[in-house]
C-alpha cells in the first residue's frame, strides 16, 4: 500500500501547486481588485509596486509621525506656517481632566462638542449641511479590504459619498483607495494614524495631515478637505 501512495504523490504535486496558485486573488490592478467577491481573498495582504516603491518617503504605518528628516518639502511648509499656530492652547489628555475649565476656553470638541473656535481669525468647523433637505453620506476610517460590495452598492444606486481615508489604510489597501477616487467619490484626509489629535504637539498634528494628504496625492489628486480623528 505504501509504495503505491509514494508512486501517486509525485503526480499530484503539480496539481496541488496549481490549485494553490489559482486560489490567490489577483491584486495587480484596480479592475482586478474590484472583481474579487470573496471577502477572504479581498483581505489577503498584497503589495502594489507603484505605492510600495514610494513608502520610503512616508512614516511607519499606524505610528504617530514626525516630519521625516529628509523631507525638505514638509519642513519648508511647517516652517512657513508654524509661527501662525496659536501657542496658548495646551496639549490635552484623554479623557478630559476634572479640572479643565467649564467655560471651555480652547473649544475642545471632546469636552463640549465645540465647533466654533474662540480664537480670532479661526473659522468654525463644518459640522452640518447648511442647505435645507440635504443628505450627505460620509464614511470614516477607510479604505478597507471589504469595500468592494459597498462601492458596488453606491455605483448601482447612482450615489456618491465622501470618504475620509486614513493614510495608513491607503498604504495598506491602495487599490481600494484608488477605486473610490476613480468612481467619483469625494476623498478627504482623516490623518495618518488616527490618534487623539488634541494629545499631539502641533508639529506631530501637522505631520498627521501632511503625510495623509501626500499619500493620497500619489493617486493623482490632492485632497482639500480634512476631518480630524478623535479630538
UniProtKB/TrEMBL annotation:
Residues 1-25 form the signal peptide. GO terms for molecular function: chitin deacetylase activity. It is an enzyme of class 3 (hydrolase). Its cofactor is Co(2+). Its EC number is 3.5.1.41. It catalyses: [(1->4)-N-acetyl-beta-D-glucosaminyl](n) + n H2O = chitosan + n acetate. It is a lipid-anchor; GPI-anchor. One of its GO terms (cellular component) is side of membrane. Residues 133-231 form the NodB homology domain. Keywords: Carbohydrate metabolism, Cell membrane, Cell wall biogenesis/degradation, Chitin degradation, Cobalt, Glycoprotein, GPI-anchor, Lipoprotein, Membrane, Polysaccharide degradation, Signal. It comes from the Eukaryota. It is found in: Cell membrane. GO terms for biological process: cell wall organization; chitin catabolic process; fungal-type cell wall biogenesis; polysaccharide catabolic process. Coiled coil: none annotated. This is chitin deacetylase. It comes from Lentinula raphanica.
Amino acid at each position: 500500500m505504501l509504495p503505491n501512495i509514494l508512486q501517486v504523490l509525485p503526480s499530484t504535486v503539480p496539481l496541488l501547486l496549481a490549485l494553490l496558485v489559482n486560489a490567490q486573488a489577483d491584486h495587480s490592478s484596480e479592475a482586478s481588485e474590484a472583481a474579487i467577491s470573496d471577502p477572504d481573498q479581498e483581505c489577503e495582504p498584497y503589495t502594489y509596486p507603484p505605492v510600495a516603491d514610494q513608502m520610503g518617503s512616508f512614516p511607519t504605518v499606524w505610528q504617530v509621525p514626525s516630519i521625516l528628516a529628509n523631507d525638505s518639502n514638509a519642513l519648508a511648509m511647517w516652517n512657513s506656517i508654524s509661527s501662525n499656530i496659536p501657542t496658548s492652547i495646551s496639549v490635552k489628555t484623554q479623557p478630559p481632566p476634572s479640572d479643565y475649565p467649564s467655560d471651555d476656553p480652547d473649544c475642545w470638541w471632546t469636552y463640549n462638542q465645540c465647533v466654533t473656535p474662540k480664537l480670532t481669525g479661526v473659522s468654525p468647523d463644518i459640522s452640518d449641511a447648511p442647505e435645507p433637505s440635504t443628505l450627505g453620506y460620509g464614511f470614516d476610517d477607510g479604505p478597507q479590504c471589504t469595500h468592494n460590495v459597498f462601492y458596488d452598492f453606491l455605483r448601482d444606486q447612482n450615489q456618491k459619498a465622501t470618504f475620509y481615508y486614513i493614510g495608513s489604510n491607503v498604504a495598506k489597501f491602495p487599490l481600494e483607495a484608488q477605486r473610490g477616487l476613480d468612481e467619483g467619490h469625494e476623498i478627504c484626509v482623516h490623518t495618518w494614524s488616527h490618534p487623539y489629535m488634541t494629545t499631539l504637539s502641533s508639529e506631530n498634528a501637522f505631520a498627521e495631515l501632511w503625510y495623509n494628504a501626500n499619500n493620497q496625492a500619489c493617486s493623482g489628486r490632492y485632497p482639500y478637505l480634512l476631518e480630524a480623528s478623535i479630538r
